[in-house]
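# nightly structure sweep
# worker-07 picked up a monomer target from the shared queue
# config: single-sequence mode, recycle default, output format = structure tokens
# input follows
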Amino acid sequence: MPIGERVKRQRISRGFTQTELAQRSGVRQSLISRLENGTRDNPSADILRRLAKALGCTTDYLVGMYEDDAGQYETAAVALVGV
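# output follows
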């Protein structure tokens, strides 16, 4: 899942508008819109940090280090045990 979809999912789950997220994070609303619409997909580390902090999640989540599906966690855990 792209970063923008993860940002949008977190924003909506917290009941924030793009404008509210912009105010909470210090990131311009236009950038949030471009991320969510997929026209910008490579934000800086600082932007990711600000968004993650405002959304109450980690930057790892936003960049896709963790899958949303619980089955993916089990697959990763099994792979680690075998190492």
